[in-house]
C-alpha cells in the first residue's frame, strides 16, 4: 500500500529527473524551429523537458546538452525523426470543428456538382495538411461519401500529410479505440466503421472504402518545394499554424494559394486567422477562406490539375 507523507503531496512535482537550463532550452527552441517551424514559447518549457526526457532515457544520455550534441552529430541523424515526433502536438478528433464538414457538404459539394453540370470534370482533390492520426482526412472522406450519391463516377483523392511519422503510421492503420468515435451518430458509425472482435474488441476500424480515398505521406510543411503536383479544391490546415511564427505563417499561406484552384477553399483551426498574414484569400465564415481568383467555379478544362 502507498503511504502518503504529510505535506509532500502539495509540493510541485519535478517534470522529470532532468533539468533544462536556459541556454539548453534556447538551443532546442532554435533546433525545433529550424526543423519544424514550431516556435516554442517559454511556457512550453516543462512540456519540452518531459517529452525529451523520454528520448534522453532511451538513449542513456545524462543531459539535454548531450542530447543536443548527439542530434547534431552524424550518428544522431536518425534520431531527428524521434525528436520531431516527440515535439509535435497531435491533438485531433473526428468531426472536430464540425462546421467545416457541414460547409463541405452543404456549400462545396453542391458547387462542385454544379461545375460538373456545366461540363467540368467529376474530380475532387483535397489536402489535409497536418493530418495527425487521420481523424481529419477520414472525416473529410466520410463527408464526401455521404454527400455524393454516384461516388464511382467521381475521381476523388484526399492527400493527408504530417511531419510526424508515428501519427502517420497510426493514421494508415485507421484503428481507433471506441471512445474516439463515441460522438459519431450511430448510422454514420455503422456505414463507415467496422467493430473489432476478439483481440480487437473495444476498437473500430475505418472501412476500406473510406480508407481508399485517402493517401498518407510524410511532408514537412517547411520543406521547399513540396513533393506535390496536384492543385487542390480545398486545403485543410487546421490547428497547425498556431505553432508557427508570423513570417512562417505568411510564407505557408503564399504557398497554399499556389496549390489551390481559383476559388479553392482553405480551412484553418478555430483559433487561427489570416488577419495580418495573407490577403490572397477572402474571408467567408469563421476560419473558412476562399482564394481570390478567376470566376466562380469555372469548368476545369483549362486549369487542369496533375497528380
Ligand atoms: C494539433 S494537430 C492538428 C491535427 C488536425 N489538423 C486537427 O485539427 O485536428 C497539428 C499537427 O501538425 C503537425 N505539424 C506540426 N508542424 C508540422 C510541419 N512543419 N509540417 C507538417 N506537419 C506539421 C503535427 O505533427 C500535428 O500532427
Q: What small molecules are bound in this structure?
A: S-adenosylmethionine
Poorly predicted residue ranges: 1-9, 294-307
* Quantity of strands, as a count: 10
| Elements, N to C (H/E) | HHHHHEHEHEHEEHEEHEEE
Give the CATH superfamily of the largest domain: Vaccinia Virus protein VP39
**DSSP helix fraction:** 25-40%
Question: In percent, how much strand structure appears in the residues?
Answer: 15-25%
Model description:
The chain folds into two domains: 12-87, Chemotaxis Receptor Methyltransferase Cher, domain 1, CATH 1.10.155; 99-173 and 208-291, Vaccinia Virus protein VP39 (Rossmann fold, 3-Layer(aba) Sandwich). With 307 residues, the protein is an alpha/beta fold. It has a seven-stranded mixed beta sheet. Mean pLDDT is 91; it is low at 1-9 and 294-307. Helix 10 links the parallel strand 7 and strand 8 (260-268). It has helices at residues 22-36, 45-59, 64-72, 79-87, 99-117, 135-147, 165-173, 186-192, 208-211, 246-258; strands spanning 123-129, 155-162, 175-177, 193-195, 203-206, 214-218, 232-237, 260-268, 281-285, 288-291. The chain has ten helices and ten strands.
Amino acid at each position: 500500500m502507498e503511504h502518503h507523507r504529510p505535506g509532500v503531496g502539495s509540493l510541485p512535482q519535478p517534470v522529470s529527473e532532468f533539468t533544462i537550463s536556459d541556454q539548453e532550452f534556447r538551443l532546442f527552441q532554435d533546433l525545433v524551429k529550424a526543423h519544424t517551424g514550431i516556435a516554442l514559447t517559454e511556457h512550453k518549457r516543462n512540456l519540452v523537458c518531459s517529452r525529451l526526457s523520454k528520448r534522453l532515457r532511451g538513449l542513456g544520455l545524462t543531459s539535454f546538452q548531450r542530447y543536443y550534441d548527439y542530434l547534431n552529430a552524424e550518428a544522431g541523424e536518425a534520431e531527428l525523426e524521434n525528436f520531431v515526433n516527440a515535439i509535435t502536438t497531435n491533438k485531433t478528433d473526428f468531426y472536430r470543428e464540425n462546421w467545416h464538414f457541414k460547409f463541405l457538404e452543404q456549400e462545396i459539394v453542391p458547387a462542385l456538382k454544379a461545375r460538373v453540370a456545366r461540363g467540368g470534370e467529376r474530380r475532387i482533390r483535397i489536402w489535409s495538411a497536418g493530418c495527425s492520426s487521420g481523424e481529419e482526412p477520414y472525416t473529410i472522406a466520410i463527408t464526401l461519401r455521404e454527400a455524393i450519391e454516384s461516388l464511382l463516377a467521381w475521381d476523388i483523392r484526399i492527400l493527408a500529410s504530417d511531419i510526424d511519422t508515428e501519427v502517420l503510421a497510426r493514421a494508415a492503420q485507421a484503428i481507433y479505440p471506441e471512445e474516439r468515435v463515441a460522438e459519431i451518430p450511430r448510422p454514420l458509425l455503422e456505414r463507415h466503421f467496422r467493430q473489432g472482435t476478439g483481440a480487437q474488441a473495444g476498437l473500430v476500424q475505418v472501412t476500406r472504402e473510406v480508407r481508399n480515398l485517402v493517401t498518407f505521406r510524410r511532408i514537412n510543411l517547411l520543406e521547399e518545394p513540396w513533393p506535390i503536383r496536384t492543385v487542390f479544391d480545398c486545403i485543410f490546415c487546421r490547428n497547425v499554424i498556431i505553432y508557427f511564427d508570423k513570417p512562417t505563417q505568411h510564407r505557408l499561406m503564399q504557398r497554399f494559394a499556389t496549390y489551390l484552384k481559383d476559388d479553392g477553399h482553405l480551412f484553418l483551426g478555430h483559433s487561427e486567422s489570416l488577419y495580418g498574414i495573407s490577403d490572397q484569400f477572402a474571408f467567408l465564415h469563421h476560419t473558412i477562406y476562399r482564394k481570390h481568383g478567376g470566376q466562380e467555379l469555372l469548368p476545369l478544362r483549362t486549369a487542369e490539375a496533375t497528380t
